[in-house]
Amino acid sequence: MEELGPQAHANDPECGQRPVPALSHHGSQRVVLLQTATLLGVLLLGYGYFWLLVPNPEARLQQLGLFCSVFTISMYLSPLADLAKVIQTKSTQCLSYPLTIATILTSASWCLYGFRLRDPYIMVSNFPGIVTSFIRFWLFWKYPQEQDRNYWFLQT
């Protein structure tokens, strides 16, 4: 019987996942923990900078808006890291269609909200979410996903 859930494509070379013994992934956990700690450190340094070294509230607000915009833009651009793999393999199995829909709805909503407030930090930082969603929609159109056999079994 085939597995459902996250392990359904564990042997799929297109997704870059390989089955590993349960205890041998501690090295990758250490890397993720280090990355998380580094990001938390950056956030704490940013917090300290904005509240301790920038006494002017107006300048603090402007710099904080820029800081948050950079993080938001990098969040929306991160799925583009898989584009080369998608184009090379001509498969969108590693892209999430529901996440693409959620991204375009969320980023478009925030852009409209920022437009109403005339806030460039909200508009500019969420616009890449719309652009990257359209790129992913184009990829889904160009390389349609094959219907997952496990999903087909669930429908019958």
Automatic annotation (TrEMBL):
<feature type="transmembrane region" description="Helical">
    <location>
        <begin position="31"/>
        <end position="52"/>
    </location>
</feature>
<keyword id="KW-0813">Transport</keyword>
<dbReference type="Pfam" id="PF03083">
    <property type="entry name" value="MtN3_slv"/>
</dbReference>
<dbReference type="InterPro" id="IPR047664">
    <property type="entry name" value="SWEET"/>
</dbReference>
<feature type="transmembrane region" description="Helical">
    <location>
        <begin position="95"/>
        <end position="115"/>
    </location>
</feature>
<keyword id="KW-0812">Transmembrane</keyword>
<dbReference type="GO" id="GO:0005886">
    <property type="term" value="C:plasma membrane"/>
</dbReference>
<keyword id="KW-0472">Membrane</keyword>
<dbReference type="GO" id="GO:0051119">
    <property type="term" value="F:sugar transmembrane transporter activity"/>
</dbReference>
<protein>
    <recommendedName>
        <fullName>Sugar transporter SWEET1</fullName>
    </recommendedName>
</protein>
<dbReference type="InterPro" id="IPR004316">
    <property type="entry name" value="SWEET_rpt"/>
</dbReference>
<keyword id="KW-0677">Repeat</keyword>
<feature type="transmembrane region" description="Helical">
    <location>
        <begin position="121"/>
        <end position="141"/>
    </location>
</feature>
<comment type="similarity">
    <text>Belongs to the SWEET sugar transporter family.</text>
</comment>
<keyword id="KW-0762">Sugar transport</keyword>
<keyword id="KW-1003">Cell membrane</keyword>
<keyword id="KW-1133">Transmembrane helix</keyword>
